Write the structure tokens for this entry.
Amino acid sequence: MKRYAPLLTLTAVAVLGFGLVAVNMAGEPDGTAAPDAAAVAAPAETTPPPEPTQPAPVPTAEPAEPAAEPPVVAEKAYTGRSSGDEVTVAVVVKDGRAVGYVCDGEKVEAWLEGTLEGDTIALRSGDGEVTVAGNVDDAAAFGDVAVAGKTWPFSAKAVEEPGGLYEGRGNVRGVATRIGWIVEDDGRVTGLARAAGVGEPQPAPPLDPNAPGQVVVEGTPIAVTTIDGDDTVVGR
Amino acid sequence: MSYTDPITEPIRAVRRSSGTALLLVGVAAGIAVSVGLGVYGRLHDPTGSAINIAGFSSGIAAKAWLASLAFLLAIVQLVSAMVMYGRLPGVSRAPAWIGGLHRWSGRVAVLVTVPVAVHCLYALGFADYEPRVLVHSILGCFFYGAFVTKMVVLSAPRAPGWVLPVMGGLVFSALTGLWLTSSLWFFGTSGLVF
């Protein structure tokens, strides 16, 4: 009996570890999504396996689009809102790549990546819960934004700096914190902050787009960068 | 203590070889656990959140304090092991209760680290965005591998005598490095918050 005591210790550690992981996994789905809404959505929406790099086809994208069509705009930033003002949407494109951020300033925020082929954009978040699909031209982007099974049409204007998409990073009280801000062409700023290890996003500190280097949270300076279409924003 | 009884010697030889075999099994299991944790931490999508454990201001503070408790118990481990091996100056004979103290402080220490490690792995994953984080990630995987090896070796009484102190030293060093790269760093940047 005494000889196997270390193995019992080992077993206890393993049981506790797997138990905690199981509790975490069981508690995960109701953390972010609204399951009832997700159930009536398109089948592709129901929690696909995470594919960090390869954007999955978005349900609303036109199916028969020939691949690798040259993008109609080389580099552009679009900001706008869904039709009922549910969420603010930013999409920035560069050389056929697209990066997006969807945020309601209260609870919903997600970073997205995807492509621009021809005039068609298709973006999704790392967990697939948030997608943006639509068309762009020199002046605007139109399409649909889907958040956890709900889909709204959106329109976004092409904007010049200081309008656009900004990301802030810093270690606030020792906790890695990431902030996203969308600056629209009328100067409205929508953003949320997310701290590592904290489930719910928190209000973002104010961003002055003309002086982005001056954001400070609880004494910690935040490094703010303008996000381009070729930046990596998902899975890091 | 060397004798060769023609009748019992074969049994002793078998038992000795089973000790070595168990040692190899232990090392292999430890490597598998370390690599497995690292691969899991690297490949799965960090959720960014996990259930909170206790009544602290934040999950991070709870982790820092649990890890500090584990580190404190690890120092108990080091001292009690030195006493058991007669290496603590001024203590020539180990008291009878020192083995129990060593076993139970070790059990509590490693159990206390489990919620911390689960949170790290599940919510944050194996990361390398700065040297401290990379060192912490590597040590975290190494710690549980070394722990598994040590537990297996403990149940192999015929393993070479140097193995146990070496494994114990590795476990202790890994935990110390983990504590330095997380709790101490956290308290240094945020102050002693609960």
Notes: Chain A touches chain B at residues 3-7, 9-10, 12-13, 16-17, 20-21, 23-24, 27-28, 31, 50, 52, 126-127, 171, 173-175, 194, 196-199, 235-236 (CB under 8 Å). The mean pLDDT of chain A is 78. Residues 35-39+47-58+68-159 of chain A form a domain with the Porin fold (CATH 2.40.160). DSSP finds three helices and 15 strands in chain A.
